Amino acid sequence: MIRQLKAKDLPGVLSVAASSFKEEARRPEVIGPGFIDGITRFPSLQIGAFEGDRLIGFAIGELSEDWGILDWIAVAPSHQRMGIGSELLKQFERTVSLSGKQRVRLGTPFAVNFYAKMGYACVGVQRVLQKVVVGSDQPFDSSFSITLSDLVDMLESFELDSMKCFFSPSCVAVGRRDVGAILATENRWSKDQIDVVFSKYEGSESHFSLLSQLEAKARERGAYLITEKFDESEVAAALGRGWEESRSPLAWTTYYMEKRLRARLRAITKAAEDAANAESARKNPLKPKAVARKPPPKVPSVLPAFTKELKRPARLPLPPGSL
Ligand SMILES: CC(C)(COP(=O)(O)OP(=O)(O)OC[C@H]1O[C@@H](n2cnc3c(N)ncnc32)[C@H](O)[C@@H]1OP(=O)(O)O)[C@@H](O)C(=O)NCCC(=O)NCCS
Fold it and tell me: Residue 153 CB: number of other CB atoms within 10 A?
């Protein structure tokens, strides 16, 4: 049975997430608040599949101004490959359609084939590479110790938000006025990993010289690796300089996928109408009656400001282990 999730289903959601996800959504600290946010703001988009009373799968999402966003979908390992994920996703799409939106978007590190089978197209990829920083003794060049005033001068006003990271005790900042700047932080779950959160530079050479200073600084702090989101244009150069596909369970390449729903919704509605008309014609052959379409359920016409980026989304070839 598939139904809307309620607050009391939270333990079930945590348990399915813990056994199904490889990414950080397996952690209660991530999925718990995400689910609570979801049932508070978009209750109809929190959907569960049940076997008796036991939750065996869920789909959790939200609406942006123009589309539905699937944040997470998971099926308990014992119940995978039985069509449950597909049913959850179809129900999710129907609910998004009924709210008047015509697209669903999502990001996934692993389930590319599942979504492709469900009609989703890959619309982008955020390639995350890692570099192990131990195994080198190149020292940090102190001319790359960037000050707050250098940084303020370097950033455009619309970039200032990224500067908040500078005030975090776990921030690792490197930069020089003539080269650019990188702001990175210790990973939320591991001091061994430093993740770049913002970079500003002109040209690939500047980027890589900033990264090699970051590498040295990360090493000084006792970190094991650094991660960075690379543009496709720089991936080959990065791979040639000792960067590799991220294998950290804390940073995955994300594939952004999208599906347009309009034609599908029309087809669903038409099929339901045809079935109702056929039933009506069977009961009353002389006077077939058109069945009025149900008005869509009410959703707020102005949604709360929603600026959150997709949490996670296929560049081919697919990475090893992707579905
Ligand atoms: C992705 C997931 C939700 C799919 O749920 P499911 O119930 O197993 O999926 P279905 O049975 O409906 O499968 C539909 C199709 O998806 C593809 N698929 C699903 N799981 C697959 C796998 N492990 N490997 C390859 N293809 C897979 C297949 O094409 C499958 O059709 P088929 O069985 O006829 O070949 C489930 O595998 C899961 O929970 N994975 C872990 C969590 C995750 O990665 N979630 C997505 C990121 S948000």
Answer: 9
